[in-house]
UniProtKB/TrEMBL annotation:
Domain CobW/HypB/UreG nucleotide-binding: 190-351
Record keyword Cytoplasm present: no
Keywords per UniProt: GTP-binding, Hydrolase, Metal-binding, Nickel, Nucleotide-binding, Zinc
Entry superkingdom: Bacteria
Pfam families: cobW
Region (Disordered): 15-66, 94-131
Family to which the UniProt record says this protein belongs: Belongs to the SIMIBI class G3E GTPase family. HypB/HupM subfamily.
InterPro entries in the record: CobW/HypB/UreG_nucleotide-bd, Hyd_mat_HypB, P-loop_NTPase
Keyword Hydrolase annotated: yes
Species name: Vibrio tritonius
Single GO term (MF): hydrolase activity
Protein name: Hydrogenase maturation factor HypB
Gene3D superfamilies for the chain: P-loop containing nucleotide triphosphate hydrolases
């Protein structure tokens, strides 16, 4: 999963925050913090400087020593007025986003009323050590998913990655359970639709809505890094939709869904579709409180996708093979794809359809309505 990939800086359409920082002592803090660490770490911020592109850097203090904190910083600049500064502190005794001295984790969002015209200076004095944990196969290929964490981040040990992942997913899962309770109470069948970019999720979604909206209530939460293009397409079907822009983030999380769901207002019982960010990796790891995950694979992608991205297909209850109208024109083995998916997840259900031609759509809409009927009763 993306433990320290910089996911953040998300925006839920119509939602506004008040940014207070809650710490272990249960007070709210202003946006000025003083920290002392075991390593020298100074930032010189000359306000009045401008960044046209996001600025992202990572630095690790004495990465080869588990007694020293690992400090990872992500800086984002948006329209010259938002400074999003995330600190992850990992110490030997604290096992989390905490330094060995402070025992705290925090996210800072600073709003400045000025533009940024001067250079942004960072002075870092660290000793750097690179510990490569990739496994070299007999054919010379490198495998970075063989350690305890089954992932790799340069300069961060496998044990530290496991701790980070447990903390991130633990907090996410708490919100997901809260979401799930809401969905069940309001008889909402919530489906998390996931796929690669270009699989045809939005086209399938608009066609599905047109076919079932007279029979059951529909609403959509749309996830993309930028733009409201897909939400606009959904709203053209006359059903409510909220756009979530994840910025640099590569997936939706439970808190984004919580905010977006409340933005949708009171919904009739029915089906809530969550269209996740196009990505076959990270969305698989994040529970949103949904009824189930649905992975969509188009015939233009390749029959080996379930084997190349097994976590996604293992986490999904249903696989939709989309764009079957293109089968005469592409080299795609449907039966091989199904076999590969069953190797990863023997219980996965399979539907084959084309949102363009309509072939197979009746089986898909019947499945949806049956699931919603069972949930409501």
């Amino acid at each position: 999963m993306c433990t320290v990939c910089g996911c953040g800086d998300s925006h839920v359409e119509g939602h506004h925050h008040e940014h207070d920082h809650a710490h272990e002592h249960s007070h709210a803090h202003a946006h000025e913090h003083e920290h002392s660490h075991d390593h020298e770490h100074s930032h010189q911020h000359s306000h009045g400087h401008h960044h046209d592109e996001p600025h992202h850097h990572e630095h690790h203090a004495n990465d080869n020593s588990s007694s020293q904190p690992v400090v990872i910083h992500h800086h984002y600049y948006h329209n010259g007025d938002v400074h999003h500064h995330v600190h992850y502190h990992v110490g030997e005794q604290n096992h989390g986003y905490e330094s060995s001295e402070h025992g705290h984790s925090h996210h800072h969002v600073h709003d400045h009323e000025h533009s940024y015209d001067e250079p942004h200076h960072h002075d870092h004095q660290h000793s750097h050590h690179h510990d490569y944990e990739g496994v070299v196969a007999s054919n010379g290929d490198l495998h970075f998913g063989q350690g305890e964490a089954q992932t790799h981040v340069a300069g961060v040990s496998q044990k530290q990655l496991i701790t980070l992942e447990q903390d991130i997913l633990g907090k996410n899962n708490q919100v997901a359970e809260h979401n799930r309770a809401h969905f069940i109470e309001q008889h909402q069948l919530v489906l998390n639709l996931m796929s690669s970019p270009g699989s045809g999720k939005t086209t399938l979604l608009t066609e599905t809505i047109e076919q079932i909206k007279q029979k059951v209530g529909c609403a959509v939460i749309e996830g993309d890094q930028q733009t409201s293009n897909d939400a606009d397409r959904i709203r053209a079907t006359q059903v409510p939709a909220i756009q979530v822009n994840t910025g640099k983030g590569c997936h939706l999380d439970a808190d984004m869904i919580h905010q977006a769901y409340h933005q949708l207002g009171q919904l009739d019982q029915g089906v809530l579709f969550i269209e996740n960010v196009g990505n076959l990796v990270c969305p698989a790891s994040f529970d949103l409180g949904e009824f189930c995950k649905v992975v969509i694979l188009s015939v233009t992608e390749g029959a080996d996708k379930p084997l190349k991205y097994p976590n996604m297909f293992a986490a999904s209850r249903l696989m939709i093979i989309n764009k079957i109208d293109l089968l005469p024109y592409v080299d795609f083995d449907v039966e091989q794809c199904i076999e590969n998916a069953k190797k990863v997840n023997p219980e996965i259900q399979i539907l084959k359809l084309s949102a363009r031609s309509g072939e197979g759509m009746e089986a898909w809409t019947s499945w949806l309505l049956e699931q919603q009927h069972q949930l409501a009763h």
